[in-house]
């Protein structure tokens, strides 16, 4: 058997990183600047099975036939996951012990969603009195929260998605919020936030020529509290590599400066370093920004495991014995409202929503290419990619419970979407198209696995997510009308049935929705009976084979 591997090397201010890959392009080992190795073991076409630091296990996964996570080990705990009929993460239970012989449950989370995949209810520990409810408008914007943690709250929005102050009738000009919930903001001619004042502290922001935040000066109203200055440095890729905090006395630096340094794996935070001690972050898969574990120290490393909200924001850290080391109560927009630590010395946890890092000195979240203000639920600067990131240049998302923006550029698919990773539950996604327009929605969809190099067919021009198999093509005996009637596709009112067919090769193993095309209306559509496939990720998993060929009438 031929084996193939590749390696990459990256050098930075904090040292050297090296990666090793298998023949399928999966990263099997990451060498940290201190020489330790993070090892990943995969099965099949690249599904993560386990992670280890050298010979120290970090986590092990079990998965179902769709390769969705069923369980993961977290030190002395095991977390189990359940999904609803649409493939959304419905429930998570945490048990003492391993995945094979778990002891009684420690805690649980149960979630319900609406038809737009918005999170509408979360229940803790099967206790209906511990539930939290959320309500949205037709645009998916969060309107209200009702629950014990973190409490009841309501929001108002204008037509552009800007939050409106409950006690003010002032309009938001140019999408720049200047007052909200007793906090005031000021902007410069570039649309960058230059000042923030909450009545207790005033913060002043400074930027460089690349519009990157370089300094934040905090000025407490209480004269017994010192003024502080926090400075930031970036590498040529725009990633923040250090922050330095120092007190000011009569406008001049006073006392010892405290510097935190950062190491990056691509555009994902890998380490934060305090006094030479690294905190290393491990994520749930190679493409994810949802944290799985944190490894503190080098000589005698201690591992903490993350327990996250539906949007991937940390709620708990547990240690190797399964004990809570840190717990946080968060607002729906990512603000850390309360936190507690049962460890001495106190364990701090600074990761917020996916891709965000909390700067406690400023209250802002560093979000790679921008900074995010959890008090407004918006970015402090306009989007660097302009309107490509959305029509509102400051908006994070319609709601932060179901959307993520790890780069601070453009919100991405909802974590609760059944096709989040584009191949988890295609059958469920296909069912969402049922009953639209003249289609009555009689088809039954289920999931199947298309193997690498399988061939499917589709009509051209106009590639879409719907395809069919060779048996359906052969049954049409060269007749385009017979083919499309078997698949319940109406002719174009001007051009008729599509007369050309393209064969496509499946580039990698993937989940597809499949089912028989049942008759919608025999007179209008024909008898049906063809086998159809649905692939929302067709652009990434299919490639054309040869040239299109023509069908007869």
From TrEMBL:
InterPro entries: Rhs_assc_core (IPR022385), T6SS_VgrG/RHS (IPR050708), TEN-like_YD-shell (IPR056823)
Teneurin-like YD-shell domain boundaries: 132-383
Keywords: Repeat
Keyword Nucleotide-binding set for record: no
Record bears the keyword Transmembrane helix: no
Official protein name in the record: Cell wall-associated polypeptide CWBP200
The species this protein was found in: Enterobacter agglomerans (Erwinia herbicola)
